[in-house]
Amino acid sequence: MVNKAISLVGVPTDIGAGHRGASMGPEALRVANLAARLTRRGLDVVDRGNLQGPLNPWQPPVDGYRHLPEVVAWNQAVHEAIYAELGEGRLPIMLGGDHCLAIGSISAVARHCRDTGKTLRVLWLDAHADFNTAEATPSGNIHGMPVACLCGNGPQELISMGGQVPATSAPVFRQIGIRSVDEGEKRLVRESQVSIFDMRHIDEVGMKRTMEEALADIDENTHLHVSFDVDFLDPTIAPGVGTTVRGGPNYREAQLCMEMIADTGRVGSLDIVELNPAFDKKNQTARLAVDLVESLFGKSTLIR
């Protein structure tokens, strides 16, 4: 693994989501003992507490975006916090919050990669492609737009956050577990040429081959960012999300996915997003997320 110094950064907001409750995600992950479990793996874990930002006004969309000023404020806070942790040589784990926050975290990681001459690779573990725009979105919820924004397709305040437009480019992304793409979004995804390993692909070739393809050509100079949306997982094992989509990876597939990412030794930053305790059962989804994050940081059955 690249780094043994870990910083947890809580971002308690559901500002970009269509359901309330993702704001409670950071606390649920803490209750599930994320820090202690990673410390037990020999990592130096510091919990930086929670970032502050505007309350969710719960308003309808304006010009195709819901809560744009508030989304900008939260993402700016995320960007600065994550960029600072990377600058101190630490590995930041963003505890979300909804997935719009990846605009702040990934723009910060991209900026850090430009500073250090690293090559960025983003593994986007999600049921959704999150490539919507104001024109294509059925809801205006910005948690459906972060990848588009990071690739330069979105409102100026969000696409310019890292000081460069676009913050990243489509070839940086490998999207895994996708099984829900809005009609208008399908064309955008195809035109962008983002690499998508959807559930059909996983069904056809298996998780092992899928991950080999997604992790191909990673080298010593790669900064690997994992953006883990908990709705990546099948809702039978992870009910605690606002946007469940049937037919996701099962427990073993998810474990293999995380273990193969860990095997690269190149993980440099992580988002855990869209955990919604309001829909969970006895915090089981948070506990599962923590279990998988342990595997991402090298927990395995045997010493390999």
Rounded to an integer in angstroms, the radius of gyration calculated over CA atoms is 17 Å
Count the strands?
8
Any idea of the CATH class? Alpha Beta
CATH topology: Arginase, Chain A
SSE-based structural type:
alpha/beta
Listing every helix as H and every strand as E from the N terminus to the C terminus, the arrangement reads EHHEHEHEHHEHEHEHEH
Show unreliable segments: none
Shape: globular
How many discrete structural domains? 1
In helices, the fraction of residues equals 25-40%
Beta strand %: 15-25%
Q: Which strand order does the major sheet show? A: 2-1-3-8-7-4-5-6
Q: Characterize the biggest β-sheet.
A: 8 strands, parallel
Cα(first) to Cα(last) distance is 14 Å
> How large is the count of helical segments?
10
